[in-house]
Write a structure and sequence with these properties.
Number of helices: 15
Shape: globular
Helix content: 25-40%
Oligomer: single chain
Strand content: 15-25%
Largest sheet: 7 strands, mixed
Bound molecules: NADP nicotinamide-adenine-dinucleotide phosphate
Structural class: alpha/beta
Distance between the termini: 65 Å
Radius of gyration: 24 Å
């Protein structure tokens, strides 16, 4: 069985102790093992700060952007083997694997272009200079410089390629070295990406490190110049935020956590219309892509009460056509969940939802996967739980079931009521609205805006719309409250997390000479 080493301090290091075994979640066949025990994590962080940081800070944005382009090209060149690993270790269909890998490549390419646009500068000038006194000589100017620490990136199991790339793109472009910690259960894709990048010497020494296996006390070793971007469960995010060093040394932390994303159908939408069909397609895609293990997947489907029965039947028809099984088979449309623990958690979550509503499609019962031996694999069928109009269940608005599971909730059709239901999720990554009625859209958008990081306005005339579940690098990803209160991506905005804003105050000619901003 392959042992996955960590790439730290510029070399591959294997941990000691009892390793964690990584399996194929469709067949439960062991694929690899990893351990981080015994590895000197403090030395690894120090190497990144000492060696990777100065190397990146010496480069311009354009040069750092060129590094990202190199990463994207290297991943593209190894696309097929990375997809094979995503199918085997992630339980991904090939289409799921492409969603992860192509998203990674697109994000790196987008940030490479931003680097090219920012050009020869090594730091950002923030806004116009300001006159501070009666004389124009007394001058102030904000600038944003790369932080002198290391960016630790802790990722969830569901996007091993995209998770690595979307966080690394912003940090490396800003000029900070990265230590990436992929979730252990699906780490084979991120590990292979690191092997490729190290082998081909795409990045300067120390710019990117990879820790495979348990994070141990990694987050406790960070200081005031370091940053930590975390994606995973709200519980782990809260534990990290409460660490003493994080509080005392003001370690900058970004958390992307749980989210009960909602899709709201407007009362003007006629069954059978293009808008209605788009809505159904988006819900079905979000429920079943990556077996529903997407932080942005639609969890609450909010529809006018008069349409609820029709939506239930139409969705049941679409979900029934999804073949569940070994994602290595081309006819399979949905693979298993990532781990036995995720399956147990999903079953428990469905039970909680069903205690408040009733099953409209599927169930939490064991589900056989096509093309695998009986009883093997972490399979669950798509599940739709229906709620009665006015039902004030709690779990439906608080329990994210990270699986192909959604709840159908009827409402009056009033935008204010729909918005109030969305708000009960207490903060989400994305909500989607489907309507052609401008007044309804306005009331709904501004009703839900404070509770969401992104609002997707579904429209059938948008060609090749990726739906609400796709995170685009040009737009922010994150959300308030339950979603972690964080923000990633959003084009150039993403750099701010890795930069220190500093105000320069002094003589205008001195500051302008220093920054090269004097008028010509
Ligand atoms: P998790 O247990 O919080 O793990 C997420 C990551 O954190 C993994 O890499 C894990 O490493 C690491 N980790 C665990 N304990 C840690 C600690 N004390 N210090 C530092 N790192 C630590 O989450 P999960 O249950 O695997 O992930 C599923 C959940 O994540 C879902 O329920 C979903 O809500 C959420 N999620 C959110 C987003 C988003 O963008 N908002 C995306 C995907 C998933 P190991 O794997 O080695 O334990």
């Amino acid at each position: 069985m392959k042992s996955l080493s960590s790439y730290l301090g510029g070399r591959w290091i294997e941990g000691t102790g009892t390793p964690q075994v990584l399996v194929n979640p469709a067949t439960e066949e062991p694929l690899a093992q990893a351990s981080s025990d015994g590895i000197d994590l403090a030395a690894a962080l120090d190497y990144a700060r000492r060696v990777g940081g100065p190397a990146l800070r010496a480069l311009s944005f354009a040069e750092r952007g060129a590094l990202l382009k190199g990463m994207a090209q290297a991943m593209q060149a190894h696309r097929d083997e990375l997809l094979d690993l995503a199918v085997a270790n992630g339980g991904n269909t090939r289409s799921d694997g492409k969603f992860d890998l192509e998203g990674a490549i697109f994000t790196l390419t987008t940030y490479a272009e931003i680097g090219e646009r920012l050009g020869a500068a090594k730091f950002l000038i923030d806004g116009e200079g300001v006159q501070l006194g009666r004389s124009p000589r007394f001058h102030g100017q904000h600038v944003c410089v790369p932080r002198a620490g290391v960016a630790v990136h802790v990722n969830a199991f569901n996007f091993p390629a995209w998770g690595l790339a979307e966080k690394a793109a912003a940090a490396l472009l800003a000029g900070m070295p990265v230590l990436c910690k992929p979730a252990t259960s699906s780490a084979m894709v991120a590990h292979r990406i690191m092997e490729i990048l190290a082998q081909e010497k795409i990045l300067p020494e120390g710019a990117l490190s990879l820790l495979v296996g348990s994070p141990r006390d990694l987050a406790s070793l960070l200081g005031g110049q370091d940053v930590l971007a975390f994606t995973g469960s709200g519980d782990t995010g809260a534990r990290i935020r409460a660490l003493r060093n994080v509080l005392v040394e003001s370690v900058r932390v970004n958390v992307e956590a749980d989210s009960l994303n909602a899709a709201v159908l407007g009362p003007d939408v006629e069954p059978g219309s293009d808008m209605y069909e788009l809505f159904l397609k988006d819900v079905q895609r979000d429920m079943t892509q990556k077996a529903g293990q997407k932080c942005t997947a639609i969890r609450r489907v909010i529809v006018p009460a008069a349409l609820a029965a029709g939506v239930r039947e139409d969705l049941a028809g679409l979900l029934g056509a999804v073949r569940v099984g070994n994602p290595a088979l081309s006819e399979v449309r949905m693979g298993p969940l990532a781990t036995a623990a995720q399956l147990a958690d999903a079953r428990e979550g469905v039970e909680r939802l069903v205690a408040e509503g009733k099953l409209a499609f599927g169930s939490a019962a064991p589900c056989a996967g096509a093309g695998v031996a009986a009883g093997k694999g972490y399979f669950i069928s798509p599940v739709l739980v229906e709620f009665a109009a006015g039902a004030s269940g709690d779990a439906v608005h608080t329990r994210e079931v990270f699986a192909p599971v959604a709840s159908l909730l009827p409402y009056s059709g009033e935008a204010a009521e729909g918005a109030a239901m969305v708000a009960r999720g207490a903060g989400g990554l994305v909500s989607s609205l489907y309507s052609d009625d401008a007044a309804w859209i306005e009331a709904a958008v501004f009703g839900i805006a404070p509770y969401n990081g992104r609002i997707y306005l579904g429209h059938p005339k948008i060609e090749l719309s990726p739906g609400p579940g796709t995170v685009l690098p040009q737009l922010v990803h994150g959300g308030p409250g339950r979603a972690g209160g964080g923000e990633e991506l959003g084009g150039e905005r993403a750099l701010a997390f890795y930069l220190q804003r500093v105000a320069l105050e002094g003589s205008r000619p001195v500051i302008q000479k220093l920054l090269g901003t004097q008028a010509v």
